[in-house]
Amino acid sequence: MRTGNEPMTARSPLRLRLCLSLWGMAWALFGLTAFSLVDRPGWAVACGLLLLLTLVDLVVIVHHIHQGPHYQPGRNVPPYEPDHGGRGRYGH
Prior knowledge:
By secondary structure, the protein is an all-alpha fold. It is built from 3 helices and no strands. The protein is elongated.
């Protein structure tokens, strides 16, 4: 069901983000290891930073998953209520 305010209330597919974050972490770890072994410190640092970024993203994703249906809705969770022009829920 469309409410007309989807960009503001869009919900992220957290399981997909989790898988992509794990995939990126694996490749960053592989790159860090490979570039360290072939003595390319610049590329190893870049892969290390990417690994750090994917770890932070992974922590955020897991935190949102643990927050429950507000961030990861199921079929029984209705969409957010539409924006009422900044007046609040009851028009006050």
